[in-house]
Design goal:
The protein is α/β, with parallel strands linked by helices and 235 residues long. Strands 6, 7, 8, 9, 10 and 11 form a 6-stranded mixed beta sheet that branches. The chain has a 5-stranded mixed beta sheet with strand order 3-2-1-4-5, with helices on both faces. Strand 4, helix 2 and strand 5 form a beta-alpha-beta unit. It is globular.
Length: 235
């Protein structure tokens, strides 16, 4: 099965073409360029460099959130557009869960964190044992103080991954000796990990149509929250 995987959920962006678990090609960029400038070029190049036609794809997977509102929308829109023309099945992948697969060869608790601004992070916890990922909690947005309180209860090795990993490490300081920052090559979202998460979903029959594929947000955009505040509505 050939899968095209996409991630544009934060500053970094990547695409990966894989056949089952074999990576045929992957592009990754972490620059100040917007994803609308880089994504389609990367998709085109991965097809060219692997001599693959879009009609050979069996599935498209995408990190559908949480993450940057604009970034997530761009990635999901690209996936929907590519899948729609050939009626390809899609897999909606949790950005946080995909990052747990970055540490697949390490027995540990993965603390996936993305900067949600306002002293909050998007977070989920996962346990890795014998190359298998076990989800420990749902994706959520929570304050760094609340996350610290949870991590204090975990006696195992904890590895921080995600674009909010350094922010979290700085907040924790030296207060937790069992918390470690993932190395830079395994820290950020990447499409090859989306492939691994997608393969699990595919094996469980959890594919959807392009029409059903939508972004997954854990809270309203900042502009909407400020409007609701002015109007006296609940956030």
């Amino acid at each position: 099965m050939k899968i095209l995987a996409i991630d544009t959920s934060a500053t970094a962006a990547s695409v990966c073409l894989a056949e089952d678990y074999k990576i045929l090609g992957e592009f990754f960029t972490n620059t100040s360029l917007t994803h609308s400038q880089t994504l389609l070029t990367m998709i085109e190049q991965v097809f060219v460099n692997t001599q693959t036609d879009v009609k050979e794809l069996d599935c498209i997977a995408v990190n559908a959130g949480p993450g940057s509102f604009t970034g997530v929308r761009i990635g999901v829109a690209a996936a929907k557009g590519l899948a729609f023309s050939d009626n390809l099945p899609c897999v909606s992948v949790s950005t946080l869960e995909s990052m747990a697969y970055n540490m697949l060869l390490n027995d540990c608790v993965v603390c996936a964190v993305m900067d949600a601004r306002c002293s909050q992070v998007y977070n989920a916890l996962f346990r890795i044992r014998e190359n298998k990922v076990e989800r420990l909690c749902a994706d959520r947005a929570l304050a760094l103080t609340d996350l610290k309180a949870e991590l204090e209860k975990i006696g195992e090795k904890i590895v921080l991954v995600g674009d909010g990993a350094e922010l979290c490490a700085e907040f924790l300081g030296n207060s937790l000796s069992n918390v470690f920052l993932a190395p830079a090559n395994n820290r950020f979202q990447k499409a090859s990990s989306v492939v691994l998460a997608a393969n699990k979903s595919i094996s469980e029959g959890k594919t959807i149509t392009s029409e059903e594929l939508t972004p997954t947000y854990l809270r309203l955009p900042q502009a909407q929250r400020e409007l609701n505040k002015r109007l006296g509505r609940d956030k």
